[in-house]
Specification:
The chain is an all-alpha fold and 62 residues long. It is built from 2 helices and no strands. It is elongated.
Length: 62
């Protein structure tokens, strides 16, 4: 990913914290409502930050 400059949003730790408290079961990846909003905050923040960086990064001429 680094070689091709691909941004990675690792949401594991954020989802793990939410899942420990609000998961539907230990081996299930679903959350009880409204905890999806908690995870979406982390994702939204990452996307906004990445978009801001891209808008302020000079374009390559290749």
């Amino acid at each position: 990913m680094k070689k091709h400059h691909v941004q990675v949003n690792d949401i594991y730790s954020a989802s793990r914290k939410i899942h420990n408290q609000w998961g539907t079961s230990p081996d299930d990846v679903n959350f009880k409502n409204p905890r999806y909003k908690e995870l979406s905050k982390s994702i939204s923040s990452f996307l906004l930050h990445t978009m801001e960086e891209l808008n302020h990064t000079p374009k390559n001429s290749d």
